[in-house]
Design goal:
The complex is a heterodimer.
Chain A (H helix, E strand, L loop, with lengths): L1 H19 L7 H8 L2 E5 L2 E2 L3 E3 L5 E2 L1 H12 L7 E5 L5 H7 L4 E2 L7 H4 L2 E10 L1 E6 L16 E4 L3 H10 L1 H7 E4 L5 H6 L5 E5 H8 L6 E3 L7 E8 L3 H16 L2 H10 L16
Parallel strand pairs in A: 1-5, 1-6, 9-10, 9-11
Antiparallel strand pairs in A: 2-3, 3-4, 7-13, 8-11, 8-12
Helix pairs in contact in A: 3-10, 6-7
Chain B lengths: L1 H5 L1 H34 L3 H15 L3 H15 L9 H31 L2 H9 L4 H16 L1 H14 L11 H11 L4 H30 L4
The chains are: A alpha/beta, B mainly alpha.
Chain lengths: 277, 223
């Protein structure tokens, strides 16, 4: 029992430590204007969305959106520091002030809205299926019932399928690899028949191997990628939303989509309306 | 803490797989390690050489590399399959091969140290009454050697329990992989979940250490 109490105490200590990490809550707008500097959390392992290239530069839709928004807030490209934000530490990063905003395939959810605020969305996508180009047997999510599927560890997409098809299916037909990049060789060598996650992520990987894979193009969930900032930073949210709307209007959004998602850009026809709240 | 309670079935399931991985690879590596030790003390130079090369390669290669080789090399490239229609069985056995191959190298070295604790005179006496080398090893040397290395075997087993987490690298849904998934599902409860899994490992490893410590004292060969 004493051991249990010890653990509880440790946990309590840890949570209070994270709570103390918060710095003074000022708007991202002021910070951008005064310092001309922003720290932006992005993914570094998602081709087409957020990727750190071997030469140390960053590329992807998230990166382009982040740069555009930063520019609109008055921060030049040289003032941006990109920081890797993995899925699990996006909220803590914002809450602790380690980053000023997160543009990292960050789905807007009500749960997350309790901890941080979202601007956007700048893209609406959904969980989709990637198959070998010559495979005609998979047409929609239902046909995955007797197929082998690959997903990434720590992603919510495999979980959605596991909940749909049950535990036995999960154990027999689902393999969870370390990242979607590890799924591609399995799909190619026919050990799995499909990879399933956000259409954007699939598109980003598939464009690297033109002609080998095809996207089914029937999303069965809705993911709204937004920009995460500190909770209750209303002026920051408005400023970013204005920047996004400008990006949608002046053609930069279309250009960024086509540049980063290549042949799969056609699945993302028009920019989503931003949600102001 | 609610997240840990809520996800308890998932966590227990994950640790059950950890236990299965440990037991299966533990047994295989014990057998294989004993064979290797026998090779390394055998009178045949070819066997001795082969054992030495194996142990030095496996012992000096990072486990992650070995496991990923089993998953990508054996599994994906060479298409080694243990079940045509069950992915989890495949990844389980592929990772078991890696874990056993790696741990066996350490079992071999520990056992060889145990063999060295048996006075040379015993082997000589065995030879002089006409026992063959396999007989000497089986009847005289190994029983004493095993009893001398129970405590280090306990350390190996503890290391093996923790090493099973590397199997997540090729998609075995054991504790480390499940923990990663739970982090994503409960982004606000990362620390409680982490502590929950850490406690799970302590629950597995602590009794092993105590048990092997006691066994070692009880079974020690008094000379």
């Amino acid at each position: 029992m004493r051991f249990g109490a010890c653990l509880l105490a440790l946990a309590a200590l840890a949570t209070s430590l994270t709570a103390c990490g918060k710095s003074g809550a000022s708007s991202i707008v002021d910070k951008a204007k005064d310092d001309k500097k922003l720290v932006i959390g992005i993914k570094v392992d998602q081709p087409g969305l957020g990727l750190k290239k071997p030469d140390g530069t960053y590329a992807g839709l998230d990166v382009d959106v982040a740069r555009y928004v930063a520019k609109e807030l008055g921060v030049p490209e040289s003032g941006i520091t990109f920081k890797e934000a993995q899925s699990a530490n996006r909220e803590p990063f914002i809450q602790q002030g380690q980053v000023d905003m997160v543009v990292a395939t960050y789905s807007i959810t009500d749960d997350r809205k309790k901890k941080i605020s979202f601007a956007g969305p700048y893209l609406i996508t959904g969980q989709d299926i990637l198959v070998r180009a010559d495979d005609a047997t998979i047409t929609d999510v239902e046909s995955l019932k007797d197929k082998k599927v690959c997903g990434a560890q720590g992603s919510s997409s495999p979980k959605r399928l596991a909940e749909k098809f049950g535990a036995e299916w999960e154990s027999k037909n689902l393999t969870q690899q370390q990242g979607y990049a590890a799924c591609l060789p399995l799909l190619e060598s026919k050990q799995v028949d499909a990879i399933s996650t956000d259409a954007t992520i699939l598109a980003g990987f598939a464009t690297q191997f033109p002609g080998k894979f095809k996207l089914i193009g029937k999303p069965f969930s809705t993911e709204k990628y937004g920009i995460g900032i500190k909770k209750d930073d209303k002026s920051g949210r408005d400023a970013i939303n204005n920047a996004l709307e400008k990006m949608f209007k002046d053609g930069s959004w279309r250009k960024a989509i086509d540049a980063n998602l290549g042949e799969f850009g056609k699945f993302f026809t028009s920019p989503p309306p931003v949600e102001r709240y | 803490m609610e997240a840990v309670v809520e996800e308890l079935p998932v966590i227990l399931q994950a640790f059950w797989l950890t236990v299965k991985l440990t037991v299966v690879s533990g047994v295989i590596s014990l057998v294989w390690g004993t064979v290797l030790a026998a090779m390394r003390v055998s009178p045949l130079p070819v066997l001795r050489g082969a054992g030495t090369v194996y142990v030095n390669i496996l012992r000096n290669t990072p486990l992650t590399l070995i496991i990923v080789f089993c998953g990508l090399g054996l599994g994906t490239v060479m298409n080694v399959q243990f079940s045509a229609d069950d992915l989890s069985i495949n990844s389980f056995w592929l990772s078991t091969i890696g874990l056993s191959a790696y741990t066996a190298a350490f079992v071999c070295e520990v056992l060889r140290a145990g063999i060295n604790t048996v006075p040379l005179g015993q082997a000589e006496a065995a030879r002089s009454i006409g026992l063959t080398f396999p007989q000497t090893l089986r009847l005289i040397i190994l029983p004493q050697a095993f009893r001398a290395v129970i405590a280090p075997f306990g350390s190996l087993l503890i290391a093996l329990i923790k090493n099973t987490t590397v199997a997540a690298a090729i998609g075995v849904a054991e504790a480390a992989l499940r923990m990663k998934n739970l982090f994503d599902a409960h982004g606000d409860a990362v620390i409680p979940i982490f502590l929950g899994f850490a406690a799970g490992f302590v629950v597995l490893t602590l009794p092993v250490g105590l048990l092997f410590g006691r066994l070692a004292r009880r079974m020690a060969v008094t000379r």
